[in-house]
Each structure stands twice: as C-alpha cells, then as structure tokens.
C-alpha cells in the first residue's frame, strides 16, 4: 500500500513539473493576423540581383560566378539566357545540365547562391528616413527589429512612431502602424512585428 502511494505521489509531482515548464514562455514577437497566410517556402528561390556560383564538374572553363540580371536570367559559356528567377539552385542546376548535354558528356552542375536578394515579390523594402533605405531578402522569422538593424536604424529626421508597414493580403493592401522610435530607442518589444514577404516599411520625415 505504501509503495503504491509513493508511486502515485511521484507521478503527480512529475505531471505538475511538466505543466509548470509548459507555462513558461519567452517574450513573443508581435504577429499581426490579417487573415492572409504568409507565402514562405522552405526552399530558397533565386531572384534578380542574386550572385550565383556555377560549377561544372571537370570543366573549369565552364565554371564561373554570375549575377542574375534584372530580367531574371543568367548567361554562362554554352548556356545563354537561362531563366533563373523563381527556381531553386537545384532546379537551375538540373536545367543547365539538360542544355549542356548537347555539348559535353554527362554534365554535372552545382549552383550555389553567394549573395541573396530573392524574388522581387518576396523582398522587404524600406523607404524614407532609414540610414540605408534598401530592399532586403526575406528570410523565415525576420522581424521589424532585424530589418531596422540591417538598414542602420533611423535618421535624426525620422518620425519613427509614425511609420507604417504596407502589406499585401488576399483582400488588397493594408497599412499597419508601427512605433519604431519606441522599439529602437525605448526597447518596447511589443512593437517588434513579424515581417512577411513583400512588406514595404515606410518611415516618414519629422516636421519640426
């Protein structure tokens, strides 16, 4: 009887401990639900502005670094005007192998993305009073704070608390107010919004 009581007590303690662990949580990122699912994918898709390293096994003369042109295409020896935009590196390598089969026996191609920009539709654009306004490649889990670090923060003329994110949804465009000054200068983590592909962050100028 005593043994059963001890076993029952141990099980109860274990369950209570697990529940306590489950209740603890790290500070959360503000996730604005606009009714549209994020268009993220697990595989990176090549976009204009990316720089690729193309390696053709045992053919150094066909291997080189090449940029993806604004029209989304690349050109390499024996492979001209190949569409790269929207493909994964593996898909592009397979397509190049198909073309090279007409010139060399059993080509083996590897494509490595060395500089990332991503597809235009998935880039995050920052305009206005940031130190370095630019288009950034989207990556899974990127937040507003990450974006602001990459663009160098706010200028001295920025009206940070009047900034907004313009986001495309299934119902059109929506504007999301964000208080960048509170986030950057006061550390108000509640303003650290999760970013989505195609977001445009607009930072207006302050008028004194």
Task: Tell me briefly what this model is.
The protein is α+β, with helices and mostly antiparallel strands. It contains 4 helices and 10 strands, in the order αββββαβββαββαβ. The chain has helices at residues 2-23, 89-100, 144-150, 180-186; strands at 51-56, 64-67, 73-76, 79-83, 109-115, 124-128, 135-136, 163-169, 172-178, 200-203.
How would you summarize the topology of this molecule?
Layout (H helix, E strand, L loop, with lengths): L1 H22 L27 E6 L7 E4 L5 E4 L2 E5 L5 H12 L8 E7 L8 E5 L6 E2 L7 H7 L12 E7 L2 E7 L1 H7 L13 E4 L5
The helix content is 10-25%
The percent range for strand residues is 15-25%
Mean pLDDT: 83
Strand order of the largest sheet: 7-6-10-8-9
Structural summary, described in words:
The protein is 23% helix and 25% strand. The protein has 208 residues and is of the alpha+beta class. It has two domains: 51-115, 2-Layer Sandwich (wza like fold), CATH 3.30.1950.10; 120-203, Outer membrane lipoprotein wza fold like (Roll). The strands form three sheets. A five-stranded mixed sheet has the order 7-6-10-8-9, with no helix packed on it. The protein has a three-stranded antiparallel sheet with strand order 2-1-5, with helices on one face. Strands 3-4 form a two-stranded antiparallel ribbon. β1 and β2 (64-67) form a beta hairpin. The longest helix has 22 residues, at 2-23.
């Amino acid at each position: 009887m005593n043994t059963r009581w001890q076993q029952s007590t141990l099980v109860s303690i274990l369950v209570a401990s697990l529940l306590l662990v489950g209740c603890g949580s790290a500070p959360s990122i503000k996730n604005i639900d606009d009714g549209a699912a994020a268009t993220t994918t697990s595989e990176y898709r090549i976009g204009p502005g990316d720089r690729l390293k193309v390696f053709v096994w045992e053919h150094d003369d066909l291997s080189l670094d090449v940029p993806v042109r604004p029209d989304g295409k690349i050109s390499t020896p024996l492979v001209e005007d190949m569409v790269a935009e929207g493909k994964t590196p593996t898909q592009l390598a397979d397509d190049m192998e198909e073309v090279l089969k007409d010139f060399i026996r059993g080509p083996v191609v590897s494509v490595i993305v060395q500089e990332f920009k991503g597809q235009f539709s998935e880039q995050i654009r920052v305009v206005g009073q940031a130190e370095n306004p630019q288009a950034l490649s989207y990556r899974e889990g990127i937040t507003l704070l990450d974006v602001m670090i990459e663009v160098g923060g706010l200028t001295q003329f920025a009206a940070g608390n009047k900034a907004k994110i313009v986001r495309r949804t299934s119902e059109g465009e929506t504007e999301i107010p964000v208080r960048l000054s509170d986030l950057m200068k006061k550390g108000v983590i509640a303003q650290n919004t999760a970013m989505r592909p195609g977001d445009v962050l607009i930072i207006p100028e302050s008028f004194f």
